[in-house]
Amino acid sequence: MAHDQPHVNQSIPATNSDTPHCGACCGASEPPPLVPGAKQLVGGRRFRIPAMDCASEESEIRRAVEGIPGVLGLRFQLGERSLRIDGEPLAAMAAVDAIRKTGFEIQAWPDAPAASDVGGTSDHDHEAGSGLPRLLAALALATAAEVLSFQVPDAPWSRWLGLAVAAAAIALAGFGTFRKGLSALRHGRLNINALMTVAVAGAVVIGQWPEAAMVMALYAIAELIEARAVDRSRNAISGLLALSPDTADLRQPDATWKLVPVANVPIGATVRVKPGERVAIDAVVTDGSTSVNQAPVTGESLPVDKGPGDAVFAGTINQTGTIECRVTAAASNSTLARIIHAVEQAQGSRAPTQRFVDRFAAIYTPAVFALALAVAITGPWLFGWTALAAVYKALVLLVIACPCALVISTPVTVVSGLASAAKRGILIKGGVHLEQARLLKAIALDKTGTITEGKPRLVEWEMLSTSLPKAQAEHIAAALAGHSDHPVSRAIAAGLTRNSFEARNFAALSGRGIEADIADQRYVLGNHRLIEERGQCSAAIEAALRRHEEAGRTVSLLANSSEVLALFAVADTIKPSSAAAIGELKAMGITPVMLTGDNQATAEAIGREAGLTDIRGNLLPEDKLNAIKAMQAQYGATAMTGDGINDAPALAQADIGVAMGAAGTDIAMEAADVVVMNDDLRRIAETVRLSKRTHAVLWQNIALALGIKAVFLALALFDNASMWMAVFADMGASLLVVFNGLRLLRNSERR
After folding, report:
1. CB-side exposure of 101: number of CA atoms within 13 Å?
2. Which run of H or of E encompasses 443?
3. How far is residue 423 from each of residues 265, 301, 341, 365, 504, measured CA to CA in Å?
4. Residue range 88-136, pLDDT digits in tens
């Protein structure tokens, strides 16, 4: 089963995004392009809409703008509460006017938004400061109106005073709701603001002004609490921006050091990071060695040793030594910044459950509105209620009808799941992949860099002659290998001890090895072919070579003019975590299969050590693609792990493509659906477990939201449920689903 969209060079659109919080959640559907087939302008103006919190509000804005001539495209990003309008300048200004007429405030995007803007701050955030006292005052006035209605209900002064107090409470708490609600009704849209406007106005008309005041005050406070809770999931990723320092210690032309804004540090410059400081920008170590805590980027729990040639990432913590580094990426394009951007983009990819809820809510709200209207009209005839009682029950239905808890239940859970994964060093590029990972039945594993370290290492060496001391043979081999850039030679040099031996008259023997003069003798270090050409092979040497080659090792032989002296075996070693990771996958019912371009003997040796039984070697990229198709036919949903380059066809064919060890690699981040930022294969099993937990929480939230509403709808029709009780029920359902979704974040924070 192939994806609807390819994995290679995949980009996630910013339109149609779903970011949690439901200021007006009433079932937005997938909107069509503003102008089908229109050419998108390269430029465009970007705006901030502080009150744009969910997909239905995005849809309201889109409908208000889509008929304006000259507007060629809209790009929404709910995570930032931003909108980019592509088109003619006059058309953009007309679009701004149209948006303001719908009741939304719109502002020019600041040239340099703060880090908090990236995660999105709303008018609710500001209400937490100046707005909260106002809402508490409204609640106090609503309570006073209730007291007056109960204590002295027949006194004229009490009625008028109570009405005035209630009106003041409604004005303090409900101005914004009424403004949005009237705009929605004027445009024929049913959202929570429209429902609350009708309910509160109806309660005032039938004389239930204390309840109207209490409903509006409780609703406004509930919205504030809900928004603050949801912001925790929204800001879980963007809060990582604070991990990167604003300044870097930059080396000046005169070799002095100066702290400069990190945005002004050019690629190729040299920066210094002292112990205890955070790395400000992606770079490669050029001088010094240290231990670095990479948990913010890769999720690794243990510090990683770094020396010359090793990459360091913005936001990581230098722990032990001062290092100098060459900058490899602009601050705006650091690995950490790309992770944050990718997760924010991923919020726009709706999970299957989320699409279902959106479609359901689009039907649910008008249906309950119609039910409320039917209750108001037919209640006196069918149940013998008074007209006022029937209207009151209908208004209670309108309050409880808000689909806020239902619509918010999915995006807050998905965003929390994405944030939880990112904190583990797992970048999941969309809710659809987060939810589908639980369905995996098989996984194809590339060998190099996935199961193995991806770097050759000297694993064994032995003497084949007694004519030379072992220590001397070691020093000679190290001197020879140190003059070659071949990966096998570098592995041998790194694994041996060198002394003062110096190689002279060095020569590379193409495809065979190297030779040089050491201590007045000519030595060679080469492969089996070279030794055969020199006539120095023997049955004993052939047996030793066969033993190592069957174990998947590459063998080099040290010889002088008369005999072979020693054998050196190099191999790409298995990662310490690979066997455990493959065991976890098997325990979860997922069948692991190795697909590699290496020869079958090497693949068999590595695969058996990792615990694999299905091992397929000598595969070209098209062979891997066909293997994925066969696995999908045999097992069902199949994942593929690879480096995002050679394995691109297989990654595209797989149901979920996974890139391993992709920290700092643009191509891998683009090619895969899931990016494991370090080299730990166990993260794949973690992804599957997180997918299962996320799916469970999604359906728990749906059940909570619909169950509470179903119970209260029955109470409203056949019992004495009041409007303010309906607000409590709606608020309770919303907060339950929000905090249930946030449990995914708490799980990640405990790790």
Report:
1. 12
2. strand 442-445
3. 27, 11, 14, 37, 52
4. 888 888 888 888 887 778 888 765 443 333 344 444 444 444 467 888 8
Q: In sequence order, which residues have a C-beta less than 8 Å from that of residue 433 and are 6 or more positions away?
A: 349, 656, 673, 674
Domain map (residue ranges) of the chain = 245-333, 453-573
Q: CA–CA separation, 655 vs 225, rounded Å?
A: 39
| Prediction pTM value | 0.67
Q: Say whether 125 is catalytic.
A: no
What CATH homologous superfamily does 453-573 map to?
Answer: Calcium-transporting ATPase, cytoplasmic domain N (3.40.1110.10)
Encoded tokens for 644 = 């995002």
Count other C-beta atoms under 10 Å from residue 37's C-beta: 5
| The one catalytic residue among 18, 231, 446, 598 | 446
Rounded-to-integer distance, Cα 662 and Cα 658, Å: 10
Contact (CB, 8 A) for 701 and 740: yes
- Do 107 and 47 form a contact (C-beta atoms < 8 A)? yes
Tokens encoding 221: 């406070």
pLDDT digits 0-9 by tens, 173-219: 877 778 777 777 776 667 677 777 888 888 888 877 787 888 788 77
Amino acid letter for position 730 = D
- What CATH number should be reported for the domain whose range is 245-333? 2.70.150.10
Q: What is the enclosing helix (H) or strand (E) of 85?
A: strand 82-87
Q: How far is CA 151 from CA 159, 164, 212, 720, in A?
A: 11, 16, 18, 21
Fill in the amino acid letter for 206. I
